[in-house]
Amino acid sequence: MRSSFFQSVRFPASIGVLFLGWFLFGEARDVWKHYWLLKDGEQGTGIVTYEHARNVVDYCYRVGGKEYKGTDRRRYLRQSHEYVNVMLGGHAVVYFSCSHPWLSSLTPPASILPDGFLGVLLFLAFEIWLIITLISPNNRWAYKLPHRPTA
């Protein structure tokens, strides 16, 4: 008797692949943004247009006569462990890429690698393991569901 997709190991593997893929795609996007900000980054002035919860703000800035928008956390000063006080309607320093002006940040990136890089590598290994399970559940590297006793 064939088991359905929802009873097989492929169902939880597909949920894991989607969730971890979403997370890893966001991390890859941040690496790409940090690369361009480090390669040809410039400094400009932006205006804070909206305040979200948890110290996240929307801002707009101009490059070459064209207006761009961004969203980022308020700048965090590591030495004094506090956020820089940028208020709604106030000016903020914006770091943007000259070749990709839509890429911007309120904080200059320290390196291309994301914070918690080893954790990202661990998630990548787990994603590969789940993809192997999804493609070939009988592979020796695939995740095996624990056997349930039949009644």
Short structural summary:
This protein has two helices and seven strands, in the order αβββββββα. It has helices at residues 10-40, 117-135, and strands at 41-51, 56-63, 66-73, 76-77, 82-83, 91-97, 104-105.
SSE topology string: HEEEEEEEH
Number of domain modules: 1
Largest sheet: 5 strands, antiparallel
Q: How much helix, percentage-wise, in residues? A: 25-40%
Report the radius of gyration as a whole number of Å. Answer: 22 Å
Look at the helices and sheets and give the structural class: alpha+beta
Number of distinct beta strands: 7
How many H/I helices? 2
**General form:** elongated
**How far is it from the N-terminal to the C-terminal residue, by CA?**
16 Å
- Low-confidence blocks of residues: none
Portion in strands = 25-35%
Mean of pLDDT: 86
Order the strands across the largest sheet as they lie in space.
Answer: 3-2-1-6-7
Notes on the protein architecture:
- By secondary structure, the protein is an alpha+beta fold.
- The chain has one domain.
- Helix content is 33%, strand content 26%.
- It is built from 2 helices and 7 strands, in the order αβββββββα.
- It has helices at 10-40, 117-135, and strands at residues 41-51, 56-63, 66-73, 76-77, 82-83, 91-97, 104-105.
- The strands form 2 sheets. It has a 5-stranded antiparallel sheet. It has a two-stranded antiparallel ribbon with strand order 4-5.
- The longest helix has 31 residues, at 10-40.
Keywords:
five-stranded antiparallel beta sheet; 151 residues; 7 strands; two-stranded antiparallel ribbon
